[in-house]
Amino acid sequence: MDDQPDSAALLPLPPVTFHILLALAEESRHGYAIIQDVAARTRGELKLGAGTLYRSIQRMLEQGLIVETSDRPDPELDDERRRYYRITLFGEQVARAESRRLVELVRLARAGGFVARRA
Amino acid sequence: MRAYQALLYLCPTAFRNEYGTEMAAVFARRSREASNVLTWLWLWLETLCDVALTAAQAHLDILRQDLRDTFRSIRRTPVFAATVIAVTALGIGATTAAFSIADHVFLRPLPFADSERLVTVWQSFGEYTEMELSPLNYRDWKRMNNVFESMAAYRGLAANLSGDGPPLHVEGVCVTADLLPLLGVKPALGRLFSNDDDREGASKTLILSDTLWRSRFGADPAVLNRKVILDGAPYTVIGVMAPNFFFPRRDVAMWAPMQFAAEEFSDRSDYYINVVAKLDRGVSIGQARAGMRVVAAQLEKQFPRENGNVSASVIGFRDVVSQKSRVLLFALVAASLCLLLIACTNLANLLLARGMVRRKEIAVRTALGAGRERLVRQLLTESLLLAVAGGAIGVFLAVAAAPLLVQLVPSGLPIAETPPLDVRVLAIAVAMTVLTGVGFGTLPALRAARAGVGGLQEGSRSGVGGRRERLRGVLVAGQVACSVALLVSCGLLIRALWRVEATDPGFRPAGVLTLQTALPMPKYDVTSKRTRFYDRVLEGVRTLPGVESAGFISFLPMSKNRGGIWTVAVDGEPRDPAHQDHASIRFATPGFLRTMGIPLLAGRDISDGDTIDTLQVAVVSQSFVRRYWPQVNPLGHHFKLQFQGEERTVVGVAGNVRVRGLERTSEPQVYMPYKQMKDGNTTWYAPKDLAVRAASDPASLLPAIRQIVAAADPEQPISEVQTLSDLVASDVAPRAVQVRVLGGFALLSFLLAALGIHGLLSFMVSTRAPEIGVRIAVGARPSNIMGLVLGEGAVLCGIGIVAGLLMAYAAGQSLRTLLADVNPLDPVTFLAGILLGSLMTLGGSLLPALRAIRVDPIVAIRAE
Fold it and tell me: What's this model's pTM, rounded to 2 decimal places?
């Protein structure tokens, strides 16, 4: 994407997009691994369907948040038909911006008395 | 797994190709993890929702993208978009209007329960197949038949409504108590008639139409149980019908019980009641007809004198629509389809041309990896969007045009005047729009997408041609053919209209005002009382400034009531009952013939001196003389009318009048003096129509005439006010409306076809500019270049015109019933068609030809 948009333009991120970015923050993963990681991270709260996942991936590729990568983390464990995805620099920026937005939101919630203040 | 893969077909192809394998792999992993049937079922449920939702969203994304592209492209080429929308609107508007009206008249079930089982039942009598019944025959037919579930009767009740405002003449009918239940209708307010209401001597009750209830009683629900005065007698309102209830005609505004009197069952040959019936389940109209003929034959045997030659005819409710109305409407539908076809070909041509212009854009998209399906989809979205916009405007046009078409809805059908705009009509319009959008979009889209990356090559513009232009040529020739066929058909109908309008009605319509004062019975039962009324009114009217003459008659020619047809016996000769002679009879005041401009050819007019005590006389028409006394001077000869015992002596001969309308032959006419009616006898024939001839604008006399009538009888209403010219015009109104609508269609088709030729040739000129440039460079003269372009147009249009004339010939054959003896191969009309076709070609070719001779050879060649 030559004309990458400003990261703020994509905010707020859809929750699924944010979870996928989190899942790809540490390493490149294939689709099923992303589903598993998101499930584990959310203690089973969010189980992505294949359709939801790949439509999000399609959109994130278009937005330049992630790219397909040929890196194979562990060739032993790998099925070579699988496609792996990696977070881009822009994706990291957007994830950070979204995190800041969420933190700010929590701060406001706390100030408003909706969340217990830390001791 | 296969099921999952099939499910993936819900998704757009591009998405499926890209992610289908991966998604299937994920699904496979998860289904392996499913430990029992329950989790497996749960997985499937989740998957179904997931894929369906994903597919919907992916399609929506594409649609959004395509719409964005379409709007961008519309903004870039607004003239193109506006043309497409306008052309679609015309096509859809015309077809929607034509279909809604044809659907209203032919297809939609009539608004009665089991309407397909409803029939009208008539006596037939030789050549007269639809005669009313006598109460006696009705009673016997009802009792003896075994084909009808039920049978009911009605007869006309035109009466003056007085009290609560100025007197008003209202058309109504008397019905037997079982008639409204037979139709399966319910009142909007109050109740229907009971058998008690229908007994002789019971107090009179009345049901109002919604229109009358609103106009006269301000839609007051308290109208129930109110007393109203009809022709001097009190009636109690017991109900109000729903707005969409019409029976037996649209103009009927009230219903009263029949209340047959005992003496009505005394004369079997006194025919005046209409009969409707509901077929037994499983009985066809043909079976019912056969069954009723058997019944009629039994009665004929039993009463050979009264029922000699009387048979029965059974006609479906919907079949009262005349053959002429049918052809009128079918022609309209066919013409609208023709127009839609022309519009579609035009649009296909426009899009093909645009596809060529957009080759580069499409090639770039292909090069960027857009699949063919994706391109076709984008182009189809564009054409559909434009079609939907055009369709919406078209429906609006159709609704706006509906009031212009009401003359095409036969008034004899018990349906509303304007077709309703409802889901049914909208569904037709939507289907037509989608068909148009897909129809004119698919071919150009497929072609454009097939061109692919080829469009990027330098100089590819000149590569256009060959098959592609041939296809466009065929489309244009088709348009020309349809348009010429429409123009010629319309021309034939215009000539038919002229011929009908040029028919001599037998009277001079200009400068005559007509109106009705229907005198109520029994108030005016006595002839002398009526005579006093007529004399007072005529005396007053004749002294009005500008009035030349005035007179009353039983029924005006061509009006709704066309009078009675009676058997006559000439000079007392006994006649074979199978070949009885007939005449159309009327009672008139002196001066009526002069007012109408009906020429008196021999003898004298009816005079004031012809009274009940003098010689019973009559003025007869020339056709009467030709038929009964072809060789002798008729004056002084005698004849007898069946319903009156006494002999009449002919004292005058008048010109023939087309009493049944310009296009129908009429029976011989008999005019009798208004004073020579017996008291209380045949009061239906009491003169009610007043005609006034004036030197100035006759309509301006109306207020004064109202005053004169009010002075003669303050309770007497005036109705049916119109000029005689309007009365004659309304006789040809359906025809005139049809010609106007078809003419509009033909004109549009002419413009569209010219536009099509223009588009094709302009495109040819722009794609062949380099070639033309070279020709000019090597010395071709402007005339050669013009010839090149015009020749191209002329060949196509020549083919189109020939095909169009053939189509027009076929159309002319099926329009025969409407042509009023105009030759379906009328040379003048066909010549006009050829001329208009050539004009259309020339008009369409001129601009492109001029552009061609202005091609700058240097610019054109450099562009290559």
Answer: 0.74
* pLDDT at residue A2, rounded to an integer: 45
Rounded Cα–Cα distance for residues B241 and B256 (Å)? 13
Q: Find the DSSP H helices in B8-77.
A: 13-33, 37-76
Count how many domains chain A has. Answer: 1
Is A53 within 8 Å of B26 when comparing Cβ atoms?
yes
Is A94 within a domain?
yes
Q: What are the tens digits of pLDDT across the range B589-624?
A: 999 999 999 999 999 999 999 998 899 999 999 999
- DSSP state string for B63-131: HHHHHHHHHHHHHH-HHHHHHHHHHHHHHHHHHHHHHHHHIIIIISPPSSTTGGGEEEEEEEETTEEEE
Q: Which residues of chain B have pLDDT under 70?
A: 127, 412, 451-469, 561-565, 571-580, 642-645, 863-864
* Side-chain half-sphere CA neighbours of B668 within 13 A: 22
Contact A50 B49 (CB under 8 A): no
Q: Which residues of A touch B51 (CB under 8 A)?
A: 49-51
Neighbours of B203 (CB within 10 A): 11
pLDDT for position B779: 84
B788 Cβ contact list (under 8 Å, min separation 6)? B772, B775, B852
Rounding to the nearest 10 degrees, give the CA dihedral for residues A75, A78, A84, A88: -40
Q: Any bridge partners for residue B159, and if so which?
A: B170
Closest residue of chain B to A83, computed from CA coordinates:
B22
ipTM for the predicted complex: 0.87
Q: What is the CATH number of the domain that holds A46?
A: 1.10.10.10
Q: For residue B237, what are the β-bridge partners?
A: B206
Collapse the DSSP code of B330 into the 3-class scheme (helix H, G, I; strand E, B; otherwise coil) and give the result: helix
Query: What are the domain boundaries of chain B?
Result: 2-76, 127-308, 323-502+733-863, 519-716
**Main-chain dihedrals φ then ψ at residue B465, nearest 5 degrees:** 130, -155
For strands B254-257 and B168-175, give the pairing.
parallel
Helix (H, G, I), strand (E, B) or coil at B789: helix
pLDDT in tens, B418-473: 777 778 888 888 888 888 788 777 777 777 777 655 555 544 444 444 555 677 78
Enter the tokens of residue B198. 């229908």
Q: Which of B19, B26, B27 is opposite residue A58, by nearest beta carbon?
A: B19
Nearest to B391 by CA among B46, B95, B630, B56: B95
Residue B49 in contact with partner chain A when CB distance is under 8 A: yes
Q: How far apart are CA B707 and CA B537, in angstroms?
A: 10
Mutation to test the B interface, candidates A53, A55, A58, A62, most B Cβ within 10 Å: A55
**A32, A37, A82: best to mutate for the B interface, most B CBs within 10 A:** A32
Q: What is the 3-state secondary structure (H, E, C) of B200-264?
A: CCCCCEEEECHHHHHHHHCCCHHHCCCEEEECCEEEEEEEECCCCCCCCCCCCCEEEECCCCHHH
Average pLDDT estimate for A10-35: 92
pLDDT score at B87? 87
How far is the C-alpha of B107 from the C-alpha of B89, rounded, in Å? 25
**Is residue A20, in this structure, part of any structural domain at all?**
yes
Range of the domain at A77: 12-111
- Beta-carbon contacts of residue B108 (< 8 Å; ≥ 6 apart): B415, B424
Q: In 3D, which of B87, B89, B86 has the Cα closest to residue B346?
A: B87
